[in-house]
């Protein structure tokens, strides 16, 4: 496993940390696939009952590395060529659908774009009081991917989802709790201790079989749509958005730190 992912085991809890603090854990191809691979590996270890996903430093994940995500894939060249979902869709499909072990998302800092999609794919979320979240997609001329159209609307409903995505406002921990994006806000000085305590308490109180069967049945009960088809629709939509003149203008304006001028084409 690359040093872009840090893994710690404590009792029956495996903590997976995104480990690019110098760029606020921005997603390169290698880091993104590393998250997926780390979850898959944890799935196969019987002694791991619960997974905690968090970031190193002062960020959970600041989204795609816009300087260039690099060229990396754990798949063979042919499988890479034929992969029409990629790592961003595997965030939801792997964390929520393939992995039956509960995943606690410990949002220790900023979570934006695909980084927020990753956080929303977890099953239970705690948020550090100083952390902030942001959709991020509108400012670079894109529509949501990573399963966010499903997980966000599932968490907060249709209108609040539309407002959150289109207004693109920064949401603090208290508002995230009010909206239902997270289940608990933790003061900064108690953060590490509370996350560890919460994860260990679940493992002490609930058997691993009960944990897995509970997630299996709740996911089934709350997933009335074809998640893979939804992820493909997201990808088709964001590609269309990025390919438009307005999409290119949005990214240029973001990088040049100026207001965008949209022309509807």
From TrEMBL:
PROSITE patterns reported in the protein's UniProt record: ENOYL_COA_HYDRATASE (PS00166)
Family assignment from sequence similarity: Belongs to the enoyl-CoA hydratase/isomerase family.
This protein's record includes keyword Nucleotidyltransferase: no
Organism: Tepidiforma thermophila (strain KCTC 52669 / CGMCC 1.13589 / G233)
Pfam family, one: ECH_1
InterPro entries: ClpP/crotonase-like_dom_sf (IPR029045), Enoyl-CoA_hyd/isom_CS (IPR018376), Enoyl-CoA_hydra/iso (IPR001753), Enoyl-CoA_hydra_C (IPR014748)
Entry keyword set: Isomerase
Gene3D superfamilies according to UniProt: 2-enoyl-CoA Hydratase, Chain A, domain 1, Lyase 2-enoyl-coa Hydratase, Chain A, domain 2
Protein name: 2-(1,2-epoxy-1,2-dihydrophenyl)acetyl-CoA isomerase
Superkingdom in the source lineage: Bacteria
GO MF terms held by the record: isomerase activity
Keyword Chloroplast: no
Stored SUPFAM superfamilies: ClpP/crotonase
């Amino acid at each position: 496993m690359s040093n872009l992912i840090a893994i710690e085991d404590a009792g029956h809890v495996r903590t997976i940390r995104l480990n690019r603090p110098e760029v606020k854990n921005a997603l390169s191809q290698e880091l993104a696939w590393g998250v997926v691979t780390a979850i898959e590996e944890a799935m196969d270890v019987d002694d791991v009952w619960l997974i905690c996903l968090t970031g190193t430093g002062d960020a959970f994940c600041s989204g795609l590395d816009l300087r260039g995500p690099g060229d990396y894939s754990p798949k063979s060249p042919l499988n890479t060529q034929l992969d029409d979902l990629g790592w961003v869709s595997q965030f939801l499909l792997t964390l929520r659908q393939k992995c039956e072990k509960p995943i606690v998302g410990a949002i220790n800092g900023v979570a934006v774009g695909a980084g927020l999609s990753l956080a929303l794919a977890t099953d239970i979320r705690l948020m550090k009081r100083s952390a902030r979240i942001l959709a991020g997609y509108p400012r670079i001329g894109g529509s949501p991917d990573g399963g966010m159209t499903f997980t966000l609307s599932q968490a907060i409903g249709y209108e609040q989802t539309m407002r959150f995505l289109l207004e693109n406002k920064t949401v603090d921990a208290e508002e995230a709790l009010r909206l239902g994006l997270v289940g608990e806000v933790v003061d900064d000085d108690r953060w590490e201790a509370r996350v560890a305590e919460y994860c260990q308490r679940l493992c002490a109180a609930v058997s691993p079989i009960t944990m897995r069967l509970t997630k299996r049945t709740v996911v089934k009960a709350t997933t009335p749509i074809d998640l893979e088809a939804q992820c493909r629709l997201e990808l088709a939509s964001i590609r269309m958005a990025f390919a438009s003149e307005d999409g290119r203008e949005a990214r240029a304006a973001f990088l040049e730190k100026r207001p965008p001028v949209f022309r509807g084409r």
